[in-house]
Design goal:
3-stranded antiparallel sheet; elongated; mainly beta; about 80 residues; single chain
Length: about 80
């Protein structure tokens, strides 16, 4: 699932303060930086199709699987249907 917008914080403490009440018993989970050109709001290596070649196809995504980029269709996104 993707986010619908981003929050930007200049200080980590501000982010921690804003979101502290939303955390469960596990607390914060650190994740690695995404691969170059990949979405920052996804835990998997997902990118906009064509973006790497300068021809982005907004609303169409690719996922890296077994070393190969393949079409990706988010199950809950009505704008990204197969076709």
């Amino acid at each position: 699932m993707f986010c619908s917008f981003d929050y930007f914080y200049t200080a980590l403490g501000d982010a921690l303060e804003d979101w502290e009440e939303e955390l469960d018993e596990q607390g914060w989970i650190e994740i690695e930086e995404p691969l170059p050109g990949c979405q920052h709001d996804a835990f998997l290596p997902i990118r906009i199709k064509g973006r790497e070649s300068g021809n982005p196809q907004w609303g169409q995504f690719e996922i890296l699987q077994d070393g190969e980029w393949k079409a990706y269709y988010p199950a809950n996104n009505e704008t990204c249907k197969r076709g």
